[in-house]
Design goal:
By secondary structure, the protein is an alpha/beta fold. It folds into 2 domains: 110 residues, 2-Layer Sandwich (Nucleotidyltransferase, domain 5), CATH 3.30.420.40; 169 residues, 2-Layer Sandwich (Nucleotidyltransferase, domain 5). The protein has 13 helices and 11 strands. It has a 6-stranded mixed β-sheet, with helices on both faces. A hairpin with a 3-residue loop joins strand 1 and strand 2. Helix 6 packs across helix 12, helix 7 packs across helix 12 and helix 8 crosses helix 12. The protein is globular, with a radius of gyration of 19 Å. The chain starts with 11 loop residues before the first strand and ends with a helix.
Length: 323
Protein backbone atom coordinates (compact mmCIF):
# COMPACT_ATOMS: atom_id res chain seq x y z
CA UNK A 1 0.00 0.00 0.00
CA UNK A 2 1.55 3.29 -1.10
CA UNK A 3 0.56 6.91 -0.73
CA UNK A 4 1.70 10.22 -2.13
CA UNK A 5 4.62 11.78 -0.23
CA UNK A 6 2.42 14.55 1.20
CA UNK A 7 -0.34 12.32 2.63
CA UNK A 8 0.89 12.29 6.25
CA UNK A 9 1.85 15.41 8.16
CA UNK A 10 3.33 14.25 11.48
CA UNK A 11 6.66 12.51 12.03
CA UNK A 12 9.85 11.88 10.11
CA UNK A 13 9.89 10.45 6.58
CA UNK A 14 12.53 7.72 6.53
CA UNK A 15 13.61 4.91 4.23
CA UNK A 16 14.85 1.51 5.32
CA UNK A 17 16.40 -1.29 3.28
CA UNK A 18 16.67 -4.79 4.75
CA UNK A 19 19.23 -6.90 2.87
CA UNK A 20 18.32 -10.43 3.88
CA UNK A 21 19.58 -13.89 3.02
CA UNK A 22 16.58 -14.65 0.80
CA UNK A 23 14.70 -11.37 0.37
CA UNK A 24 15.54 -7.68 0.13
CA UNK A 25 12.89 -5.27 1.39
CA UNK A 26 12.35 -1.54 1.01
CA UNK A 27 10.07 0.53 3.23
CA UNK A 28 9.56 4.28 3.00
CA UNK A 29 7.37 5.53 5.81
CA UNK A 30 6.51 8.35 8.12
CA UNK A 31 7.27 7.47 11.73
CA UNK A 32 5.11 9.18 14.32
CA UNK A 33 6.31 10.28 17.75
CA UNK A 34 4.35 7.32 19.15
CA UNK A 35 6.41 4.88 17.05
CA UNK A 36 3.79 4.04 14.43
CA UNK A 37 4.85 3.69 10.80
CA UNK A 38 2.57 5.03 8.06
CA UNK A 39 3.71 3.29 4.89
CA UNK A 40 4.32 5.55 1.90
CA UNK A 41 5.96 3.03 -0.40
CA UNK A 42 7.26 -0.51 -0.12
CA UNK A 43 8.82 -3.18 -2.29
CA UNK A 44 10.39 -6.58 -1.81
CA UNK A 45 12.40 -8.88 -4.05
CA UNK A 46 13.47 -12.50 -3.58
CA UNK A 47 17.13 -12.14 -4.58
CA UNK A 48 18.82 -15.04 -2.73
CA UNK A 49 21.92 -13.17 -1.67
CA UNK A 50 22.76 -16.04 0.70
CA UNK A 51 22.61 -18.77 -1.92
CA UNK A 52 25.42 -21.24 -1.14
CA UNK A 53 26.79 -19.24 1.81
CA UNK A 54 26.11 -22.04 4.30
CA UNK A 55 28.48 -24.34 2.40
CA UNK A 56 31.10 -21.96 0.99
CA UNK A 57 30.96 -18.96 3.38
CA UNK A 58 31.13 -16.83 0.23
CA UNK A 59 28.65 -14.43 -1.35
CA UNK A 60 28.46 -15.28 -5.04
CA UNK A 61 29.30 -12.47 -7.49
CA UNK A 62 26.02 -12.91 -9.38
CA UNK A 63 24.03 -12.76 -6.13
CA UNK A 64 25.78 -9.56 -5.06
CA UNK A 65 25.07 -8.07 -8.49
CA UNK A 66 21.35 -8.91 -8.20
CA UNK A 67 21.17 -6.98 -4.96
CA UNK A 68 23.20 -4.04 -6.25
CA UNK A 69 20.94 -3.69 -9.29
CA UNK A 70 17.86 -3.68 -7.08
CA UNK A 71 19.36 -1.02 -4.81
CA UNK A 72 20.12 1.04 -7.92
CA UNK A 73 16.43 0.82 -8.83
CA UNK A 74 15.31 1.77 -5.34
CA UNK A 75 17.60 4.77 -4.83
CA UNK A 76 15.73 7.16 -7.19
CA UNK A 77 12.41 6.01 -5.71
CA UNK A 78 13.67 6.97 -2.27
CA UNK A 79 14.78 10.36 -3.58
CA UNK A 80 11.25 11.10 -4.82
CA UNK A 81 10.01 11.01 -1.23
CA UNK A 82 12.66 13.44 0.02
CA UNK A 83 13.39 11.27 3.04
CA UNK A 84 15.25 12.70 6.03
CA UNK A 85 17.48 9.65 6.30
CA UNK A 86 18.00 6.28 4.59
CA UNK A 87 19.27 3.26 6.49
CA UNK A 88 20.36 -0.07 5.04
CA UNK A 89 20.94 -3.13 7.20
CA UNK A 90 22.29 -6.58 6.36
CA UNK A 91 21.68 -9.79 8.28
CA UNK A 92 22.66 -13.47 8.33
CA UNK A 93 24.16 -14.10 4.88
CA UNK A 94 26.40 -11.04 5.01
CA UNK A 95 27.33 -11.76 8.65
CA UNK A 96 28.48 -15.26 7.70
CA UNK A 97 30.31 -14.47 4.47
CA UNK A 98 34.09 -14.16 4.56
CA UNK A 99 33.91 -11.82 1.55
CA UNK A 100 31.30 -9.53 3.15
CA UNK A 101 33.62 -6.52 2.91
CA UNK A 102 33.65 -6.89 -0.87
CA UNK A 103 29.85 -6.64 -0.91
CA UNK A 104 29.68 -3.78 1.60
CA UNK A 105 32.34 -1.88 -0.35
CA UNK A 106 30.38 -2.35 -3.57
CA UNK A 107 27.23 -0.95 -2.00
CA UNK A 108 29.16 2.05 -0.71
CA UNK A 109 30.91 2.64 -4.02
CA UNK A 110 28.00 1.99 -6.40
CA UNK A 111 25.03 3.17 -4.31
CA UNK A 112 26.63 5.55 -1.81
CA UNK A 113 25.20 3.81 1.28
CA UNK A 114 26.98 2.56 4.38
CA UNK A 115 25.31 -0.74 5.21
CA UNK A 116 24.90 -1.53 8.91
CA UNK A 117 25.75 -5.17 9.57
CA UNK A 118 23.56 -6.19 12.50
CA UNK A 119 23.88 -9.21 14.80
CA UNK A 120 21.11 -11.75 15.26
CA UNK A 121 20.32 -10.25 18.66
CA UNK A 122 20.15 -6.71 17.25
CA UNK A 123 17.99 -7.97 14.39
CA UNK A 124 15.61 -9.42 16.97
CA UNK A 125 15.52 -6.21 19.03
CA UNK A 126 14.47 -4.15 16.03
CA UNK A 127 12.02 -6.83 14.90
CA UNK A 128 10.39 -6.56 18.32
CA UNK A 129 9.91 -2.81 17.80
CA UNK A 130 8.12 -3.51 14.54
CA UNK A 131 5.93 -6.26 15.94
CA UNK A 132 4.96 -4.29 19.03
CA UNK A 133 3.84 -1.34 16.87
CA UNK A 134 0.99 -3.38 15.41
CA UNK A 135 -0.10 -5.93 18.02
CA UNK A 136 -3.66 -6.08 19.37
CA UNK A 137 -4.03 -4.07 22.58
CA UNK A 138 -4.74 -7.16 24.70
CA UNK A 139 -1.39 -8.84 23.93
CA UNK A 140 1.03 -8.33 26.81
CA UNK A 141 3.55 -11.16 27.25
CA UNK A 142 4.59 -12.58 23.90
CA UNK A 143 7.08 -14.94 22.35
CA UNK A 144 7.93 -13.87 18.82
CA UNK A 145 9.48 -16.03 16.12
CA UNK A 146 11.21 -14.51 13.10
CA UNK A 147 12.16 -17.15 10.52
CA UNK A 148 14.71 -15.77 8.10
CA UNK A 149 16.79 -17.20 5.30
CA UNK A 150 19.91 -17.90 7.31
CA UNK A 151 18.86 -17.47 10.93
CA UNK A 152 15.81 -17.60 13.18
CA UNK A 153 15.23 -15.29 16.12
CA UNK A 154 13.24 -15.97 19.30
CA UNK A 155 12.11 -12.92 21.31
CA UNK A 156 10.42 -13.27 24.71
CA UNK A 157 8.94 -9.95 25.80
CA UNK A 158 7.27 -9.47 29.17
CA UNK A 159 6.03 -6.10 30.51
CA UNK A 160 8.44 -4.73 33.10
CA UNK A 161 11.31 -7.02 32.04
CA UNK A 162 14.05 -6.71 29.47
CA UNK A 163 13.34 -8.81 26.37
CA UNK A 164 15.10 -12.17 26.17
CA UNK A 165 16.51 -12.64 22.68
CA UNK A 166 18.09 -15.71 21.12
CA UNK A 167 19.25 -16.16 17.53
CA UNK A 168 20.08 -19.52 15.95
CA UNK A 169 21.89 -20.21 12.67
CA UNK A 170 18.95 -22.00 11.12
CA UNK A 171 16.78 -20.48 8.41
CA UNK A 172 14.88 -21.52 5.30
CA UNK A 173 17.80 -21.25 2.87
CA UNK A 174 20.28 -22.90 5.24
CA UNK A 175 17.87 -25.76 6.07
CA UNK A 176 16.98 -26.33 2.42
CA UNK A 177 20.60 -26.44 1.29
CA UNK A 178 21.74 -28.64 4.15
CA UNK A 179 18.86 -31.11 4.52
CA UNK A 180 16.11 -30.85 1.89
CA UNK A 181 17.99 -31.61 -1.32
CA UNK A 182 15.52 -33.86 -3.15
CA UNK A 183 12.37 -32.60 -4.87
CA UNK A 184 10.09 -33.13 -3.09
CA UNK A 185 12.10 -33.81 0.07
CA UNK A 186 12.33 -37.46 1.09
CA UNK A 187 11.08 -38.69 4.46
CA UNK A 188 14.61 -39.16 5.85
CA UNK A 189 15.52 -35.58 4.86
CA UNK A 190 12.43 -34.21 6.57
CA UNK A 191 13.18 -36.24 9.68
CA UNK A 192 16.77 -34.97 9.79
CA UNK A 193 15.47 -31.42 9.49
CA UNK A 194 13.02 -31.94 12.35
CA UNK A 195 15.73 -33.36 14.60
CA UNK A 196 17.98 -30.37 13.94
CA UNK A 197 15.21 -27.84 14.57
CA UNK A 198 14.05 -29.53 17.77
CA UNK A 199 17.58 -29.71 19.14
CA UNK A 200 18.14 -25.99 18.49
CA UNK A 201 14.72 -25.08 19.88
CA UNK A 202 15.22 -27.12 23.05
CA UNK A 203 18.46 -25.22 23.68
CA UNK A 204 16.63 -21.91 23.25
CA UNK A 205 13.75 -23.13 25.43
CA UNK A 206 16.14 -23.82 28.29
CA UNK A 207 17.41 -20.25 28.04
CA UNK A 208 13.94 -18.68 27.78
CA UNK A 209 12.44 -20.55 30.72
CA UNK A 210 8.70 -21.05 31.17
CA UNK A 211 6.71 -19.82 28.15
CA UNK A 212 3.33 -21.20 29.17
CA UNK A 213 0.52 -18.72 28.65
CA UNK A 214 2.45 -16.39 26.33
CA UNK A 215 1.03 -15.19 23.02
CA UNK A 216 3.05 -16.86 20.27
CA UNK A 217 3.63 -14.38 17.42
CA UNK A 218 5.21 -15.09 14.04
CA UNK A 219 6.66 -12.62 11.56
CA UNK A 220 8.51 -12.55 8.21
CA UNK A 221 7.95 -14.18 4.84
CA UNK A 222 7.39 -17.84 5.73
CA UNK A 223 4.69 -17.12 8.28
CA UNK A 224 2.90 -14.38 6.33
CA UNK A 225 2.94 -16.66 3.28
CA UNK A 226 1.38 -19.51 5.27
CA UNK A 227 -1.31 -17.11 6.48
CA UNK A 228 -2.04 -16.19 2.85
CA UNK A 229 -2.10 -19.86 1.83
CA UNK A 230 -4.39 -20.79 4.72
CA UNK A 231 -6.89 -18.25 3.40
CA UNK A 232 -6.28 -19.13 -0.28
CA UNK A 233 -5.61 -15.47 -1.06
CA UNK A 234 -5.10 -14.87 -4.81
CA UNK A 235 -3.00 -11.79 -4.00
CA UNK A 236 -1.15 -10.59 -0.91
CA UNK A 237 -3.56 -8.67 1.34
CA UNK A 238 -1.79 -7.22 4.41
CA UNK A 239 -5.09 -6.43 6.15
CA UNK A 240 -6.14 -10.10 6.01
CA UNK A 241 -2.71 -11.44 6.92
CA UNK A 242 -1.84 -9.13 9.81
CA UNK A 243 -3.15 -10.53 13.12
CA UNK A 244 -4.49 -13.66 11.39
CA UNK A 245 -4.37 -16.70 13.68
CA UNK A 246 -2.73 -19.85 12.32
CA UNK A 247 -3.52 -23.05 14.19
CA UNK A 248 -0.94 -25.81 14.51
CA UNK A 249 -3.42 -28.15 12.80
CA UNK A 250 -3.56 -25.83 9.77
CA UNK A 251 0.24 -25.62 9.65
CA UNK A 252 0.49 -29.42 9.69
CA UNK A 253 -2.05 -29.65 6.83
CA UNK A 254 -0.14 -27.08 4.77
CA UNK A 255 3.13 -28.89 5.41
CA UNK A 256 1.71 -32.17 4.14
CA UNK A 257 0.25 -30.50 1.05
CA UNK A 258 3.60 -28.87 0.25
CA UNK A 259 5.59 -32.07 0.84
CA UNK A 260 3.39 -33.95 -1.65
CA UNK A 261 4.34 -31.55 -4.45
CA UNK A 262 7.49 -30.75 -6.39
CA UNK A 263 8.72 -27.15 -6.67
CA UNK A 264 7.08 -26.90 -10.08
CA UNK A 265 3.78 -28.26 -8.74
CA UNK A 266 3.79 -25.70 -5.91
CA UNK A 267 3.85 -22.81 -8.34
CA UNK A 268 0.48 -21.14 -8.57
CA UNK A 269 -0.80 -22.37 -5.19
CA UNK A 270 -3.06 -19.61 -3.83
CA UNK A 271 -1.13 -17.39 -1.43
CA UNK A 272 2.34 -18.74 -2.33
CA UNK A 273 4.64 -15.95 -3.47
CA UNK A 274 6.47 -16.73 -6.71
CA UNK A 275 10.12 -17.54 -6.01
CA UNK A 276 9.35 -19.12 -2.63
CA UNK A 277 8.38 -22.54 -4.02
CA UNK A 278 11.48 -24.32 -2.73
CA UNK A 279 12.09 -22.66 0.64
CA UNK A 280 8.47 -22.58 1.85
CA UNK A 281 8.79 -26.26 2.75
CA UNK A 282 11.74 -25.58 5.05
CA UNK A 283 9.92 -22.64 6.62
CA UNK A 284 6.82 -24.69 7.31
CA UNK A 285 8.87 -27.49 8.86
CA UNK A 286 10.66 -24.95 11.08
CA UNK A 287 7.41 -23.34 12.24
CA UNK A 288 5.72 -26.67 12.98
CA UNK A 289 8.72 -28.13 14.83
CA UNK A 290 9.24 -24.98 16.91
CA UNK A 291 5.57 -24.81 17.90
CA UNK A 292 5.45 -28.50 18.81
CA UNK A 293 8.66 -28.27 20.83
CA UNK A 294 7.47 -25.19 22.73
CA UNK A 295 3.92 -26.53 23.21
CA UNK A 296 2.24 -23.77 21.18
CA UNK A 297 -1.07 -24.50 19.43
CA UNK A 298 -1.61 -21.18 17.66
CA UNK A 299 0.47 -18.51 15.94
CA UNK A 300 -0.64 -14.88 15.76
CA UNK A 301 0.70 -13.54 12.46
CA UNK A 302 2.38 -10.13 12.30
CA UNK A 303 2.83 -8.45 8.94
CA UNK A 304 5.09 -5.98 10.74
CA UNK A 305 8.63 -6.83 11.75
CA UNK A 306 12.23 -5.95 11.03
CA UNK A 307 11.63 -3.40 8.26
CA UNK A 308 9.25 -1.38 10.45
CA UNK A 309 11.52 -1.80 13.46
CA UNK A 310 14.49 -0.47 11.50
CA UNK A 311 12.58 2.76 10.82
CA UNK A 312 11.26 3.10 14.38
CA UNK A 313 14.76 2.59 15.79
CA UNK A 314 16.23 5.14 13.36
CA UNK A 315 13.55 7.69 14.28
CA UNK A 316 14.37 7.25 17.98
CA UNK A 317 18.08 7.71 17.37
CA UNK A 318 17.47 10.87 15.36
CA UNK A 319 15.16 12.19 18.09
CA UNK A 320 17.79 11.55 20.76
CA UNK A 321 20.39 13.46 18.76
CA UNK A 322 18.05 16.43 18.39
CA UNK A 323 17.05 16.58 22.05
Amino acid sequence: MSAAPSTYSDGKVLAGVDIGTLTCRLLIGRVSDAGQVAELHSDRRILRLGEGVDRTRMLRPEAMTRVIRTLQEWKPVIEIYRVERTIAVATSAVRDAVNRDEFLDRVKREIGWEVELISGEEEARRTLLGIRSGLPADVSTMLALDIGGGSTEFILDRPGSAPVVRSIDLGVVRLTERCLRRDPPAADEVQAARVWIRKETETVQAQLGDVEGVTFVGTAGTITTLAAMAQSLPAYEPARIHNHRLSLATIRDLEQELLRRTKLQRQGLPGLERGREDVIVAGTIILRAVMETLGQSECLVSDLGLREGVLIDLARRLENRES
